[in-house]
Design brief:
By secondary structure, the chain is mostly helical. About 85% of the residues lie in helices and about 0% in strands. The protein is built from 2 helices and no strands. The longest helix is centred in the last third of the chain and has 53 residues.
Length: about 120
């Protein structure tokens, strides 16, 4: 086909083949840009997915947490028992002190009563 062929030229004198080739090149350039954008987006998504996977790997499991809480519960119970014993001893000591003071007071009262 020759360039003067009416099939190859539009009414304003532009070669249809060149026009179609230009349109295809523009479409391909748009596709290339879309692919580059999509690749960048997918790379970002993969990085985010890897971060989530890494983070999930560092989380404590439910079983580990239950074991730690059970151990802490036992420690608190033993501390509570120690505290209860200490409070019991303190109240026992204060009761003993009050008894000694009252006995001394009774003896002093009796001595004072017989000395008159």
């Amino acid at each position: 086909m020759t360039p003067n062929n009416p099939i190859m030229r539009s009414s304003d004198g532009v070669c249809i083949k060149d026009y179609v080739d230009l349109r295809f090149a523009e479409a391909q350039r748009g596709i290339d840009k879309a692919e580059a954008t999509m690749s960048a987006r997918l790379a970002t998504m993969n990085e985010f997915r890897d971060q989530l996977k890494d983070q999930a790997g560092r989380f404590i499991t439910r079983d580990e947490m239950n074991a730690l809480l059970g151990q802490m519960r036992d420690d608190v119970k033993s501390l509570q028992k120690i505290s209860d014993r200490a409070e019991g001893k303190a109240s026992q000591n204060s009761m003993l002190f009050a008894a000694i003071v009252s006995i001394v007071g009774l003896i002093l009262g009796l001595v004072n009563m017989f000395n008159k």
